[in-house]
Every structure is written in C-alpha cells, then in structure tokens.
Amino acid sequence: MKTMTRNARLxxxxxxxxxxxxxxxxxxYANGTTIIVSDGTTGSLNQIALKDTFDDNQRAxxxxxxxEDPNNVRVVEANKRLELRTSALATGGFAGFLSNAWRLDPRxxxxxxxxxxxxxxxxxxxxxxxxxxxxxxxxxxxxxxxxSVGCVENFRxxxxxxxxxxxxxxxYFQRWENDGTLYVSYDSQYDVLYLSLTGYGPEQAWAxxxxxxxxxxxxxxxxxxxxxxxxxxxxxxxxxxxDNIVVEAGKIIEASLKTVYRFWSPVNKAHFFTISExxxxxxxxxxxxxxxxxxxxxxxxxxxSDPNCRPVYRFWSDQTMSHLYTLSExxxxxxxxxxSFIWTYQGVAFxxxxxxxxxxxxxPVYRFWSxxxxxxxxxxxETEVARLRQFPSxxxxxxxIAWYAVP
Length: 407
Prior knowledge:
The chain is mainly β.
C-alpha cells in the first residue's frame, strides 16, 4: 500500500484483478446438494466441474429464474428434482433456471448431461423440457441451442433446435422412453457442438453444429439453462422433470460479482471505493484513522467474464487528495497523457456496464464534481442524487451516469 503520511496521504493500492474461476468446494450451497469440486478445467470426465442434484428442494445460487409466462408455466424445485408445471392456458412460454454467476468458456472442450422424465402423451397439445445454451442472459431465446424431450400431437419426441436471430434449424426423433439422459458436448479445437441421447462426442451425436460457438457467436461465454414449455397442455407434479445436471468437463467462468465498498475520509474530505476485500480489510484494520467504512455501493465484476462490461479506471491525485473513477477510455487517456501531473493512474478498479450495454436490472451509478472541494463523488442512491442536485452547481455539479452496476 502506498502512503505518503499516515494522517492524510493514504491514497491507493494498485491491485491486479484476475479472472476468477469457481473454486474447490464440496459444500458450496445449501445442504451440499450443489457442489463445485474443481476449478472447471478438467482433462478427464472423472473430475466433475459442476453438479446440482436438486435434492434440497430450493433454488441454489447457481441459478436464477427465467419465466415468459409465469401465470401458466413454472419450474419448481420440489421432490428432489426440477419439475415443470403448467396450465392448459399456456401458449408456448418458457420457464426455467438460467445459470447465475457462471458460464462455460467456449475456448475449452466441455461435456454436460441432465436426466429427464416425461410421461405425457397428448392429442393436440404440446409440451417439452430440456437443456440449452445461450450467449445472452438478456435475450436467451434469440440465440440458443436446445435439446429437449416432449410430445407434439400424438408424437412423443426428442427435439433439437438452433436459433440465431430469425434463422432456426430444428429436428425431431421419435421417443419410446419416458426416462433418459440428454448429453451436450463440445470440441473447441474444431468449434463443433454435439447433441446426443446416448453419450458424448461425434460417435454418439444426433445433431452436430459446426462453427457456431466461436464462429457465429464470437466465443462469448455460454449460459446454461434448464426448463420447458407448454402449449395448451396442463402438466402436474411428477409428469415432466429434470434431475442431476452434471458438467463433467469444461472451464467454468465465474462471473464473480463482488461488493464495492464505500469509504469516507474525514481527513481528505473525500470518498473512496474498492472491490478488493484485502484493500477493504487493510483500510479498516490499519488506516481507520484516515478511512471510515460507510458500507457498500452495489456490486461489480473483478474481471472480464461478462463481455458487455468495460473497465472502470482508477486515478489518485496528490493535489486534491481524492480519487477519480472513469469508464471512459477517452477520459482515462486524457488524464494519463495530458494531466499526469495531477492524476496518477492506478489501474482497473473493477468492471461495470456502460450506458447502452446494461441489462434491464442494472442500476445507474451517478457522478458529481465539486469545484469548491475539488473532488468527485459517485452514488447509486436516488436520494443522494436528489439532495446533491439541490446545491448550486459550483458546490456539486451533476456529470451524468458514470456506469451501471449490479444490485
């Protein structure tokens, strides 16, 4: 840590933030039913990267819910499995679990499977349940590959579907079994995705997609989803469900959201923000006379695991005794090239969403500048924003939205 004097000039740690992978753990979530036992990089199918048995009957932090028609189509983690339940009013909407804070890296091979049960046989209705991949959490069904099991008008089927915008490719295969396993595997060297009903790889493949994940989708990290659909089909408990999803090989990217901590310095009369637990602990334990922990300011990423995020650059000024944070590469370059006598570049503080790239659930972080105090201030609080905007502009000048963060 760089200090100039203990009483006033604690400025910054320049911390490197690296891509985080899911860490070794045998009891990561409730009751140990969801386990992560490797860093995600495996050379053998004997080393599990991720598994959820759904035995605890509650959604683990691995997943977030995804619903298009919540009144008529739902998935419920119950009876030690993931059940699809629908009403006869359903019109084709999807319900499921979408991977939360983790994705598959398409630069590496992967292999995953999930067990299914589907015992419905219909006349004119339609229903299905399965597993899919998408590069987008905001619009998962506009680009996806899905392998499912279901029934369509007297025809019990397996189905695959590849959707890329308006282009759709689909196929059916007659199904005789009510129980089985769906397999998805990937050869990163040749950018080939395999969907299968019997096992991994080209020998077992029912459907093969070349040049999709790294080519068409640009090597974006892949979200995994589980769930199903219904059109006019009422599905009750125990009729259609998934169980025991296992990622047996692959590199899992953890979109490891971290808390951004907010400090106030009564000495410097300025705020400071950090995503680093080590830096936070150092300020609390060693520099509490300079920096007071005020709490948290939303969350952000410590890495580039979400390709929509951009680095937030951090600067320190010995003249103003304050920090400046900017997501603007243009502003960062100007400070480095033209104002280095005022601002010292300290690296990337964290990664956040720029305006226009934020998900619908992200919250804005507002930026203010005080000419009289010569400090910047950042806040996601609408209450603070309203209070600061009551001051004259030479006291607090509103500069707009700095970036978008995660609640």
